[in-house]
Amino acid sequence: MEIDYENLIGQWHKDRNLIDGSTDKDQYMKLIQEAGELSDSLCKGKDISDDIGDMLVVLINIMVRNNLTINECLSVAYSDIKDRKGKMIDGVFIKEGDK
pTM of the entire structure? Predict the structure, then answer.
């Protein structure tokens, strides 16, 4: 049986008043803090799984507040990128047509 972490984490937020007691802006600031921790771990060659997980936990908070799911958000994002063409140049993805 697969564990539904998205719903478990959403409920964890609700149980701790992190949905009604917080705002998208508050959670965005937390996301940036967690992104800084990811940056630090990447720079130091440390394990990044906890940092990515922490960022997903914060994103789930924002998604719950806005009645979204990971799958819905990924579906929209994939629709935007699926036909995108381009290539990496000096570490930057350059979309075809933006050259």
Answer: 0.87
Say if CB 93 and CB 86 are below 8 A apart: yes
- Could you report how far apart the first and last alpha carbons of the chain are, in Å? 48
**Domains defined for the chain, CATH in brackets:** 5-95 (1.10.287)
Chain position carrying tokens 């719903």: 7
Strand, helix or coil for residue 95: strand
The CA distance from 31 to 25, in Å, is: 10
Type of residue at 6: E
d(CA 47, CA 38) in angstroms, rounded, equals 9
Return the residue matching tokens 């990971």. Answer: 70
The predicted structure's pLDDT at residue 99? 56
Helices (H), the chain: 5-15, 24-44, 49-65, 70-81
